[in-house]
Amino acid sequence: MSEHTVALIAGFIAALCTISMVIPQAHKVWRDKSGIGVSLLTWAMFLCTYAMWFGYCIRSGNVAGTISNIFTNTILCVLVLGLLRAKDSTTSAGIGVGIYVLAVVFFIIGILFPMPIVLTLMLAATIIRVPQVAKSFRTMRDVTPSEVSILTWWIGICASTAWVIHGILLPDYLFVITSGVAFVLAIGVLVPEYVAKARRAAA
């Protein structure tokens, strides 16, 4: 089996995990009509970033990434809408429109802007999980309820691992760097969420 074939298989596994990871969080938010402990900023940045990845994958001819992003962006739109609905705020509609407009802008950037700009933004986008990490640490510190889906972040770790393999074999080091950082930050969400869960159970 050639490296290219293995890279393609890893890419499709990564794409499947990327699509799947958003579903448990979206389901939980819509089911419970609550986004407590879940960072809207993180998921809004996910939407904008994956919109840019979508443009980048179309531009670079990455089939696995393109297919993944069609589905992932659709589910992310649903999740962000659910979080806005859970906020029950008069400004939610305006915030939502702003987020979706930004996502379209980032998609256009991914397709049309000079590659150095796109690559710089892709690397900067590795921080999108940081607001959720911070929020999960506050949940742990204050021992407050959380609607964060543990399953979502475990699937995210699987996706990051597969994207790293995909990137190494292509080679495409943008995939390697961004997915490696995503792996570490996903752990940064899971650890405090598990600790908070244990503390709530002991209380």
Question: Could you give a quick summary of the protein structure above?
Answer:
Helix content is 84%, strand content 0%.
How would you sum up this structure, described in words?
The chain has 203 residues and is mainly alpha-helical. It is 84% helix and 0% strand. It contains eight helices and no strands. It has helices at 3-32, 40-60, 63-87, 92-112, 115-124, 130-142, 150-169, 173-202. The longest helix is centred in the first third of the chain and has 30 residues, at 3-32.
H/E topology pattern: HHHHHHHH
Helix vs. strand class: mainly alpha
The count of DSSP E runs of length 2 or more, i.e. the number of strands, is 0
How many distinct folded domains? 1
Largest sheet: none
Features:
globular, 8 helices, mainly alpha, 203 residues
SSE layout and pairings?
Layout: H1 3-32, H2 40-60, H3 63-87, H4 92-112, H5 115-124, H6 130-142, H7 150-169, H8 173-202
Helix pairs in contact: 1-3, 1-7, 2-3, 2-4, 3-4, 6-8, 7-8
